[in-house]
Amino acid sequence: MTLHAERTTATGRAPAPAPKPRTPVGANVDRADAGRDPRASHRDAAIDAARAACLVVVFALHAMMVGVSVGAGGPVLENALEHWSGFAAATWFVQIMPLFFVIGGYSAWSQWRRMQEKGADAAAYVRGRLARLVRPAIALVAVVGLALAALTLAGLPAEVVATAGFRIGQPLWFLAVYLACTSLVPLMARAHARHPFGTVGALLAVVVVVDGVRMTTGVDAIGFANLLAVWLLVQQLGFALADGTVERMPRAARLVVAPAALGVLAALTLAGPYSPDLLMNLNPPTVCLVVLGVAQLMLFSLVRPALRRWAERPRPARAIARFGEWGMTLYLWHMPAFVLLAGVLLWLHGLVGLALPVPLTPEWWATRPIWLVAAAGATALLVLVFARWERGVRRGESPSRVLPGASALARVRVPVRVPVGVAVAGGILGVGLVLVFGFGAWTAITALALLGVALRGARERPVTRSDSGSNSQSNSLAIGRPRDTRATAAAMSVGGGSMEPQHHM
Fold first, then answer.
1. Distance in angstroms between the alpha carbons of the first and the last residue of the chain
2. Cβ atoms of 179 and 429 closer than 8 Å
3. What is the CA radius of gyration of the chain?
4. Confidence of residue 461 (pLDDT cuts 50, 70, 90)
5. Which residues are registered as beta bridge partners of 71?
């Protein structure tokens, strides 16, 4: 609280009070705002709520896919929904990855613009995002790699260990792609600012050409070029939401575009060459995801005001804030939680004869509510353990309290300066290595080394007098030295918003 002493003028009258600052257009100010973290004042509650909802959908979908039973040859771990006749139709409601990238694009555009206003450059932005994304990945690879190695030494069949590692690593595709898209935000933001429609058109042309070549040649590997093109394009849609382009569209127009996009999607999948199973369109990514992204963007823009009002209520706001703080940890650790829980079920089956119903039978469906509750509890436990690693080690805190064994890593000093481009490449390669080859001992060690390079490159460098002495607020997108310690510090606290082949997300 600040005390202001009243002063009188020579005439004995108190001067007129200073005018109150105007509330920015679109800001929602109420009594509840008084207790909010001022650093979060720039956030859009609707965006945060949508991101949390996407995480819940991913969690529920992956949980429902877990099939644990015992066959003639022993334990069976399978995709429980793979042979469900209603699965393709259900994917039209649960394929939310385009919306995830739209929201990521919105957050990236907003954060990058705020940092530019403080004089930061592209390197500062990329370092901040890289640090937040790489830290939880290091924890995952280290812990899972050690756990699977221990299970192998304990005599668990190699096939079971390999299956567990494969399932745990499946969601990592999102992290690898998100790292790539995030590193290109400054460049793509400049392209959007200069040629918004031209940029979208060029990316769309690339996506269509890649799809066409893949279908013509029958070489599916060609389609993986769209891992970057598709998600960069959907990220650009998020830029359009962030700069107000979408909101400037008449509501009636958005009401037309949303069903029109869904109609195009139906034509592509029901009468065209694409699968009606929208999760199959992840592997490799196709133009269908772009069309779905347009529909989801329009629908989100229509419900955004109502969603914002609900999300700003105290109780939902607290829950949503937790998802924002722990989002990447939840995404990375929900599959290990499911695998761990599956192992417990198999152990109980052998110990006390616990019944494990075959997937898609009436008994299996009847037990899904219990399974979902147990899966949520196991995931919450792992998130509580590893969420602090996502935030990073705070000043004065022992690294070993955040992650066992981390104190040894914390003492490592890499004298070589790591350029931000090398750091990004290290992060992508480290994640991609585990995604492709699993959690074998040498794979995990190599991945940790690459992720360590990424984290080293993401560390904030000291700002010299010449760096901070300039008053220039340049909007240059060239990767270079951060100009403002405040901007660089802001980059290091950026939230990750924010994340498979076959039937998995």
1. 49
2. no
3. 25
4. low
5. 74
Q: Are 245 and 301 in contact (CB under 8 A)?
A: no
Q: Is 151 exposed, middle or buried (0-12, 13-18, 19+ CB in 10 A)?
A: middle
In order of 36, 79, 252, 261, 350, the CA distances from 74 in angstroms are 54, 16, 58, 46, 11
Q: How many helices (H) and strands (E) does the chain have?
A: 20, 2
**What are the tokens at 10?**
């020579």
Which pair of tokens denotes residue 301? 């823009």
Buried b (16+ CB within 10 A) or exposed e, 392-426: bbeeeeebeebbeebeeeeeeeeeeebebeebbbb
pLDDT in tens, 6-57: 334 444 444 444 444 443 333 343 333 333 443 445 689 999 999 999 999 9
Q: What pLDDT score does 25 carry? A: 37
> How far is it, in rounded angstroms, from Cα 277 to Cα 290?
15
The pLDDT of 102-130, averaged and rounded, is 94
Centroid of chain to Cα 418: 25
Q: Mean pLDDT across the stretch 162-186?
A: 93
The pLDDT, as a whole number, for residue 322 is 86
Pairing of strands 74-79, 66-71: antiparallel
Q: Using alpha carbons, select from 267, 261, 263, 252 the residue that is nearest to residue 293.
A: 261
User: Can you tell me the distance from the alpha carbon of 159 to that of 150, in angstroms, rounded to the nearest whole number?
Assistant: 15
